[in-house]
Amino acid sequence: MSDSFARGLRRAGWLAGLPALALIGVSATLYAAPQIAGRLEAEAADVAAGTATETGEPWLRLEARGRDLMVDGEAPDAEARAAVLSRLAALDGPRRIVSGIGLVETATPFRWAAIRVGPGRVALEGSRPAEIGRRALEARVTGALAPGTSLDDTARAARGAPPDFPSAAAFLAARLSGLAAGGRAALSDTVLNLSGEAVDVPAYEALRAVLSEPPAGFSIGRVEILPPRVAQYRFTVEKDAGGIVLDGFVPSAADREVARRAAQEAAQETASATVDDRLVTARGLDPAIDPKTLIAFAFRLAALIQTGRVTFADGAVSISGDAMDGQAMPDAEALMREARPAGVAAGRISLTARPLSPYRVAIRRTPEAVTLTGHVPDVATRERVLDALRPRLFREPILDRTRLADGAPPDLGAALAAAAPLVAGLATGEASVSDRTLTLTGESLYREVAARAPDRLAEALPPGWTGQAAVSARQPAERRDPATCRADFAAVTAGADLRFPAGSAVPGPAFYPTLDALAALAKACPSLRIAVSGPADPAKAAPTPAAGPGEGAHPAAPSEAEATRVASAAKAEATGKPDAKASGKHDKAEAKADPKDAAKKDAPKRGKPAPKKPEAAAEEPPQDLPRLRTQAVVEYLLQAGARPDQVSTGPDAPAGPVTFALLP
Questions:
Q1: Which residues touch 485 (CB under 8 Å, ≥6 apart)?
Q2: pTM of the complete model
């Protein structure tokens, strides 16, 4: 064995010593490299110290890696950079100098960013003010971060930073504590931007709140903060005697506003109801479910309960509580079956019916419509209220949203029918019933109507009912001088071409813009006096009637008593007061008429059949059509806000459009 080994060594020769030499070399390198690097850094430190600026910090940064010297920083100019590199090259020992030295330039726009790259680590990039030392700025930023956070600062010195840059940098850095990895807080001149995903719900709410108060001189720009993701997404609408409570989650601030508006609209059905918004923004809703559709569906179900809860959880919607009425339970089942949003499962329906307490119904008038809400005992009561409203409304639609339910107080229909004219006479307002108490609130166009509202309500209510009225008078928003009023009147009426359909005294849709403008002008011009003249229909060629001797072909003109009655009724409708004088004349005229004479006049001659009235005569419009048209226009102007003393009837006009005259 020894001879064989010796012969092998002789054949290998000097190659047998290479591993030993390599081991010796590696050992020497590992032992000597740190000493060489330390010596290089110590020699170069004197060069770096010579680059100190007015901040007290040198702009040159260096690191030795073995015999290589890595240098970085921002030199104030090219000459200073060349001088530093020359001094480093003159040192004894560096094998290679790797330079990353740049020049201080003006950054436009000036951008800086802090990025959360992981737990306990934040990277700084972009530009930092040249007049602020790197270590000084890092100390300010670190103070705003969570304790133990390390910085990876690659920001380069530059000119052009906004004033009080350190405060803005610290403000942005502090926001990173509420963001997950990848969160970015950036500055562009004086605009602060924030993006990323919130770590949890409290952090998200805190971020949204603090961004409303940026440092002085700075503004908030783009904010793209994703809400946190929750494992159990839920949304709840709860109704109780005090109001509506919103709880759970919504995917965005826009969806939260949608839910809040829906709750406020639902709370208006009860004057004392309030909205308690406890919603927070979070992700976790199935992407297949539209959040706004889900919110709308929840409130459709919530409208069916007096007290209770509508809940979306685990992908399903359920409803529980006291049903609004007996109709509510099948309605809830139908909604669950037919109107459920895509992606939402049907949950449990647990409703109990109980008598309504209190029993509520309301008539609400707005500039857009008149709306009935609440409950009525039967269809007849509903129709009675609608019949009381329809003749008093020109163009406002009537929206019936009432439901049928037992338990109504006695004489509910009579109370609502009595309140309907009072509500129709308001500019905006409401008559609300709670059991046997009716409350009238709102705003009237006339001071007299507002003052009489309590007395009129007390007179109209059935026995056993109590009423409360709080109606204020609307004052004109502006006043114009007489010359301007006359000029505006001429401008409004110059292009007006208001024509009634043949034989009709009902204003058409084309009337409304002009009449609204005249009413608004009357409110702004208290001294304005307008005369309205309604036109007659164009004359028609009368057909020759086949009438016998003594039989007339033309209809009889209305009697004086009848004309007085029509005018009196129109005036009473417009002003709310009966015309006692006209009523008296009408009664006297009727008293003078002999019933026997009337019977003789109306009865056919003995032995002869009553003559047939020609068809043309049957279609002939009434003789007082111009007066009726005038009264319709006057009525509209009064309802739209003109005072009774500002609008009067003028002489009948010939066929054509309605005419308006300005009285002195």
A1: 521, 524, 525, 527, 528
A2: 0.51
| Of 597 and 305, more confident | 305
**360 or 357, which is more confident?**
360
Exposure string of 391-428, with b = 16+ CB inside 10 Å and e = fewer, is: ebeeebeeeeebbebeebbebbbbbbbbbbbbbbbbbe
CA dist 429 and 424 (Å) reads 9
Checking if the pLDDT of 35 tops 70, the result is: no
Ranges of beta strands (E only) in 56-203 are: 60-65, 68-75, 96-103, 105-106, 111-118, 121-129, 150-153, 156-159, 184-188, 191-197
Give the C-alpha distances (Å, rounded to integers) separating 253 from 276, 283, 442, 565, 572.
Answer: 16, 12, 34, 62, 53
Residue with the larger pLDDT of the pair 399 and 36:
399
Segment (H or E) for 312: strand 305-313
What are all long-range contacts of 148-153, with beta carbons under 8 Å and residues at least 24 apart?
A: 148/120, 149/120, 149/121, 149/122, 150/120, 150/121, 150/122, 151/122, 151/123, 151/124, 152/117, 152/121, 152/122, 152/123, 152/124, 153/123, 153/124
Residue type, 133: G
Q: Report pLDDT for 592.
A: 39
Within 8 A by CB and 6+ apart from 477, the residues are 523, 524
CB 239 within 8 A of CB 267: no
pLDDT the model gives residue 17 = 53
492-497 contacts: CB < 8 A, separation 24 or more? 492/517, 492/518, 492/521, 493/518, 493/660, 496/657, 496/658, 496/660, 497/657
∠ CA 396-400-406, rounded to 5°: 150
Within 13 Å of residue 100, how many CA atoms lie on the same side as its CB? 10
CA angle 488, 491, 492 (to 5 degrees): 90
Average pLDDT over residues 524-529: 88
Long-range CB contacts (< 8 A, 24+ apart) of 417-422?
417/384, 417/385, 417/387, 417/388, 418/460, 418/461, 418/462, 419/363, 419/457, 419/460, 420/363, 420/385, 420/388, 420/389, 420/392, 421/388, 421/392, 422/453, 422/456, 422/457, 422/460
CA distance 442 to 438: 13
Does residue 247 register a pLDDT over 70? yes
pLDDT in tens, 538-574: 876 544 444 443 333 333 334 444 444 444 444 444 3
**What integer pLDDT is reported at residue 441 of this predicted model?**
93
Distance from chain centroid for Cα 272: 22
Whether 574 contacts 644, CB under 8 Å: yes
- In one letter, which amino acid is 151? L
Q: How does residue 609 score in pLDDT terms, banded at 50, 70 and 90?
A: very low
Residue 330 scores a pLDDT above 70: yes
Q: pLDDT by residue (tens digit) across 159-197?
A: 899 999 999 999 999 999 899 999 999 999 999 999 999
By the 10 Å C-beta count (0-12 exposed, 13-18 middle, 19+ buried), 361 is classed as buried
Does the pLDDT of residue 619 top 80, yes or no? no
Residue ranges and CATH numbers for the domains of the chain are 26-103 (3.30.1340), 106-226 (3.40.1520.20), 234-352 (3.40.1520.20), 360-473 (3.40.1520.20), 479-539+560-574+581-586+622-664 (3.30.1330.60)
**pLDDT at residue 608 is higher than 80:** no
Higher-confidence residue of 367 and 362: namely 362
Q: At what angle do helices 78-89 and 18-49 cross, to 10 degrees?
A: 140
